[in-house]
Amino acid sequence: MLPLQECLSPHVAMAQRDHVRLDWREPYQTLERVRSTRWTCACRATVYELCEGGGRAFIRRTLQLDDGYKIHETHRWSIAEARAVWTDILSGHAR
Ligand SMILES: [Zn+2]
């Protein structure tokens, strides 16, 4: 059995009743290199990542299932806009 580990990455807050519902789509490949710059803790079934590349950014949501993963992505925003959405996800104001 693994030793109990402390969580180093943030957890999302519970969704607020009036939270913004993001448009989650099937992921699609783009030519730009994309890298995760922020992510939530993998101890939760749903992991969110802020992904940046080519001057644009989006959120990737990975649902960890018993038999694999289910991945969805938002559409692309400017990096500043995506960072604002990221903050809203963490605080429960968007989901
Ligand atoms: Zn955790």
Give an overview in words.
- By secondary structure, the protein is an alpha+beta fold.
- It has a domain of 57 residues.
- It is built from 1 helix and 5 strands, in the order βββββα.
- Strands 1, 2, 3, 4 and 5 form a 5-stranded antiparallel β-sheet that branches.
- β1 and β2 form a beta hairpin.
- The longest helix is centred in the C-terminal third of the chain and has 13 residues.
- The radius of gyration is 14 Å and the shape is globular.
- The protein binds zinc ion (ZN).
- Zinc ion binds next to loops.
Write the layout of secondary structure elements.
Blueprint: E1 35-39, E2 46-53, E3 56-65, E4 68-73, E5 77-78, H1 79-91
Antiparallel strand pairs: 1-2, 2-3, 3-4, 3-5
This protein binds zinc ion.
Residues 7, 11, 41, 43 line the site of zinc ion (ZN).
| Secondary structure category | alpha+beta
Instruction: Tell me the number of helical segments per DSSP (H or I, 4 or more residues long).
Output: 1
DSSP, total strands: 5
Order of helical and strand elements: EEEEEH
Principal-axis shape: globular
State the end-to-end distance: 33 Å
- Which ligands are bound? zinc ion
Estimate percent helicity: 10-25%
What would you call the quaternary organization?
A: single chain
- Computed over alpha carbons, the radius of gyration is 14 Å
User: How much β-strand is present in the residues?
Assistant: 25-35%
- Mean pLDDT score: 93
Main sheet: strands, sense, barrel:
5 strands, antiparallel
User: pLDDT under 50 segments (min length 5)?
Assistant: none
